[in-house]
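Retro notes (design track)

What went well: tokenization of the new backbones is finally stable.
What didn't: we kept losing track of which sequence belonged to which structure.
Fix going forward: every design gets posted as structure first, then sequence, in one message. First example under the new rule, 85 residues:
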């Protein structure tokens, strides 16, 4: 099954959402900003995740570094109209 993950990082929490290729929501929940917890949430979907988008871009490097060695892709995202560089 193809699934995609979206993570919206805030100062005290991260909202994690996972959808399938038909945009059906498979998972959505807010978590504390703890990388091991967030990775454990993503783990059941690990073999199916085709890509992940993380907003804002700056903390993307933290999660990206934690996923080194994975064959999965990760992209930083910004709201429409926001500067991306």
């Amino acid at each position: 099954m193809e699934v995609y993950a979206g993570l919206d990082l805030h100062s005290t929490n991260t909202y994690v959402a996972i959808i399938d290729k038909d945009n059906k929501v498979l998972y959505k929940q807010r978590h504390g900003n703890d990388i091991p917890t967030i990775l454990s949430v993503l783990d059941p979907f690990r073999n199916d995740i085709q890509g992940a988008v993380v907003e804002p871009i700056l903390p993307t490097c933290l999660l990206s570094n934690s996923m080194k060695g994975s064959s999965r892709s990760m992209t930083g995202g910004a709201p429409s109209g926001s500067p991306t560089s």
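Added context from the reviewer: The longest strand covers residues 13-20.
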